[in-house]
Backbone:
């Protein structure tokens, strides 16, 4: 069957356009661009309660995205949650006494880990542990504390 | 030794018997005609020979090979040596006349485009339509389409050509052209031709042997001259195209007088 | 009473028969695919009639769907003060669901019915029979290239649909309703996961392409070779494709996006 040139050209354009659309979806729409920063290092931190923290939740420092949560497992000896964090390669000057806390973004938002820099002059390397951690706020505990302190306050 | 041997062929469609014990011999280099009234399954016979349908009983041997015992590859090899002319031409409607005739060459051979071009032009020349090679099938008249289909059927220089009702619905000139072509091709290329038709006049002009089929059996066989002199009334009615005879004019039922009488009394 | 049961049984048996025929048909098609890579021009020709000619429909539909998503999404989100998340809503809706599903439904209606009609017509004008007598297997020559073309086109069309739809959502969200463009894109980029969302959507559209093209080609090949037979086959293609797409979408979504 004879192939007309214009048929071949338009098919080529069609396939190119489809691939371009896929590319746009990859780069501009999804988080694929971030994956390039995966050349980084990993640190771990233990929390009493991770609340609604999920794998791939963001890890920020002063509001700047410095990494992602890579893994969350239960430490069967300490009964704490052991969180593994992927820190992007650019951020290699995080002090070893940095504190990690779990915050909630907005009222309905998802939870993330916020890092507060410490004062040490040594920096976190691959495999290090963040010792200072603060667990997620669990609503029932907060209300319970509030009611308890209110009750105490009334007694005086 | 006949090229095609059909022995004790039985074929049923549902409960209807299309063929019940048919024996046919087709000899090389001859034009054999299969004729009979409409609906006797003449087209079915061609399909059985080509292996598209399987007989319920009996054998069909083509060039010594039992058609229905062949593997798919072997059957395809056999079909490459058969050319078939369908009633409607069956040209591929989305490609040009040239591409249609070139189709078997492109599919089955590795010939260069320039060789294919030469072959196609020669085949088209043989049917007198070389100048129509760039037309699309939709632009062809029925007669022209059939001639192109004929050119396509002989592209691979087959050993035999099967013609399915080639004369049906043609104007006199197209008919004459086709008759002439079939005859000349058979002679020039040493082909074996099988013509399935119910056009007595045209077929009788070129056929060497005629088989007359009806109700699943071979009623008579012989040369056109022999058939015209046949003693069977049925054969005479068929060959001469008489309106009444063994095949009655009136659909069987009560007589006219009875029907009219019944009307008056009800 | 007995008659209804009998006809029900007959219908059931013939449905199984059809199902079997359809699968045997598929096996023959798949067997014929490897040799297509040597004769890719056949596939290219089909990519044109199946893919390129559907692009216009997909682009326009995608644009409108995206714009409507922008409007409706904004109306709903603004009640929660969450209109900045419009980008997320538009992109996830399109990439996960609307892109693959709607483009597959449109494809079935436009390209699928055209394929069925084409094959059905080739059958009724004895072109397929003629090819067989010329020792060319019509399934390898005619059906398989169309199948491969459908399989390749579907994910490309779904991607185009989603991309154009997101742009449409942006046009309405930012251009018309004043959502901050930075928030629109940045939130979207964070929450739209390449693997979980985009790739899953592409996988869906490949599955849809496989099934819709298969149905379209089989209905044409199996059609009664009369004009009304072909007409009925075309209708069946669209209806069966719709059921298949929506049913498979549920199964795939449950598999991909269900809770771990």
Residues:
């Amino acid at each position: 069957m004879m192939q007309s040139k214009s048929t071949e050209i338009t098919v080529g354009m069609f396939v190119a356009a489809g691939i371009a659309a896929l590319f746009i979806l990859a780069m501009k729409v999804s988080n694929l661009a971030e994956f390039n920063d995966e050349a980084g290092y990993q640190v771990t931190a233990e929390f009493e309660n991770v609340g609604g923290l999920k794998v791939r939740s963001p890890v920020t420092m002063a509001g700047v995205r410095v990494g992602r949560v890579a893994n969350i497992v239960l430490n069967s000896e300490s009964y704490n949650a052991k969180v593994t964090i992927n820190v992007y390669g650019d951020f290699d000057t995080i002090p070893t006494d940095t504190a990690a806390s779990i915050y909630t973004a907005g009222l309905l938002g998802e939870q993330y880990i916020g890092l507060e820099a410490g004062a040490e002059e040594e920096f976190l390397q691959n495999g290090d542990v963040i010792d200072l951690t603060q667990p997620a706020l669990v609503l029932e505990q907060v209300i319970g504390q509030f009611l308890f302190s209110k009750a105490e306050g009334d007694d005086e | 030794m006949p090229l095609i041997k059909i022995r004790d062929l039985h074929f049923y469609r549902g409960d209807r018997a299309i063929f019940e014990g048919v024996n046919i011999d087709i000899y090389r280099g001859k034009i054999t005609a299969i004729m009979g009234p409409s609906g006797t399954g003449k087209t079915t016979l061609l399909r059985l020979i080509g292996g598209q349908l399987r007989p319920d009983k009996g054998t069909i041997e083509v060039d010594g090979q039992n058609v229905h015992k062949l593997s798919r590859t072997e059957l395809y090899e056999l079909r490459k040596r058969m050319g078939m002319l369908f009633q409607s031409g069956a040209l591929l409607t989305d490609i040009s006349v040239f591409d249609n005739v070139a189709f078997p060459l492109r599919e089955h051979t590795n010939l260069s485009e320039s060789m294919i071009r030469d072959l196609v032009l020669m085949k088209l020349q043989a049917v007198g339509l070389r100048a129509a090679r760039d037309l699309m099938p939709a632009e062809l008249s029925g007669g022209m389409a059939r001639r192109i289909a004929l050119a396509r059927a002989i592209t691979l220089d087959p050993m035999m050509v099967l013609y399915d009702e080639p004369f049906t619905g043609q104007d006199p000139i197209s008919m004459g052209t086709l008759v002439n072509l079939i005859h000349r091709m058979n002679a020039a290329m040493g082909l074996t031709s099988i013509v399935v038709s119910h056009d007595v006049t045209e077929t009788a002009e070129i056929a060497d042997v005629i088989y007359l089929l009806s109700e699943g059996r071979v009623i008579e066989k012989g040369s056109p001259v022999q058939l015209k002199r046949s003693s069977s009334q049925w054969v005479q009615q068929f060959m001469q195209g008489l309106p009444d005879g063994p095949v009655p004019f009136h659909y069987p039922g009560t007589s006219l007088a009875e029907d009219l009488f019944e009307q008056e009394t009800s | 009473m007995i008659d209804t049961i009998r006809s029900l049984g007959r219908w059931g048996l013939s449905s199984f028969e059809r199902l079997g025929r359809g699968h045997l048909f598929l096996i023959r098609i798949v067997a014929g695919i490897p040799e297509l890579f040597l004769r890719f021009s056949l596939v290219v020709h089909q990519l044109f009639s199946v893919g390129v000619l559907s692009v216009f429909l997909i682009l326009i539909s995608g644009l409108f769907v995206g714009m409507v998503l922008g409007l409706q999404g904004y109306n709903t989100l603004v009640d929660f003060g969450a209109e900045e998340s419009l980008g997320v809503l538009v992109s996830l809706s399109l990439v996960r669901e609307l892109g693959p599903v709607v483009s597959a439904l449109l494809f079935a209606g436009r390209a699928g019915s055209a394929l069925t009609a084409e094959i059905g017509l080739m059958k009724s004008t004895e072109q397929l029979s003629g090819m067989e007598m010329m020792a060319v297997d019509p399934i390898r020559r005619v059906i398989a290239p169309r199948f491969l073309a459908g399989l390749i086109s579907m994910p490309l069309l779904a991607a185009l649909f989603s991309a154009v739809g997101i742009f449409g959502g942006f046009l309405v969200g930012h251009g018309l309703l004043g959502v901050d463009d930075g928030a629109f894109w940045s939130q979207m980029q964070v929450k739209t996961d390449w693997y979980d969302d985009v790739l899953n959507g592409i996988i869906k559209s490949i599955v849809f392409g496989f099934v819709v093209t298969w149905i379209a080609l089989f209905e044409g090949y199996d059609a009664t070779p009369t004009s009304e037979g072909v007409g009925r086959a075309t209708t069946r293609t669209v209806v069966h494709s719709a059921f298949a797409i929506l049913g498979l979408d549920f199964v795939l979504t449950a598999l991909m996006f269900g809770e771990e």
